[in-house]
User: Fold this.
Amino acid sequence: MIEFKNVSFSYNTVNIDGETIPVDGLKDFNLTVNKGELLVLTGSSGCGKTTVTRLINGLIPHYYKGEIRGSVTLNGENISEKPIYETAAHVGSVFQNPRSQFFNVNTTDEIAFAAENRKTDPAVIKERIADTAKIMGIEKLLNRNIFELSGGEKQIIACAGINVLSPEIVVLDEPSSNLDIAVIEKLKEVLALWKTQGKTIIIAEHRLYFLRELADRMRIL
Ligand SMILES: Nc1ncnc2c1ncn2[C@@H]1O[C@H](COP(=O)(O)OP(=O)(O)OP(=O)(O)O)[C@@H](O)[C@H]1O
Ligand SMILES: [Mg+2]
Assistant:
């Protein structure tokens, strides 16, 4: 279970004079996400959807610095007090800009990367990659140069890596933003599969039509 209790966060930004200026990212936010739930976060640009996803995967406060008030807990433990690698064992992330999330040049290496970091047995990883490629219909994207893929293909590679890692929670920030209608259908199938596996899924999105049958709850910020 993920719980936000009276959470406010302001980003520390630096102006041209080098002074630190706080920028409100989220204010007095409360939310409970139950295990196995698919929750959609929506609302106008700048309302704080991405900020909520960063508070769940620990990028706030471990990467994005600022002032945090209230508490964000994962199964009762405060996410900001846990090292980010511990949170990453439970929470997989698909970012809005897929370019910002890759560590490898080869697509297959990237799909394996998160699971390798969890010391998953190489034979199991191989098997899961083959299964994932089949389920997601991405055999043609294996062993390619990641920088030569389209934005949508990169997004799908990020989802494939999560499928191999198989974390209990997945946060996705505007996963459909680079995808055409056919690939959105594929994303839908992957989300449906994760749902049947009992994963907790949090999606920040403007585009809602493809989530209508999948969402358990929608939260407008
Ligand atoms: N890295 C950052 N540094 C400073 N301020 C930030 C940063 N990221 C977000 N903000 C600010 O926090 C507020 C919430 O932004 P956030 O990105 O969470 O909104 P959003 O709902 O995801 O918007 P969008 O729909 O456009 O993606 C905005 O006012 C934004 O300017
Ligand atoms: Mg956003």
Remarks:
- The beta strands are 2-14, 20-33, 38-42, 66-74, 77-78, 91-94, 169-173, 200-204, 217-220.
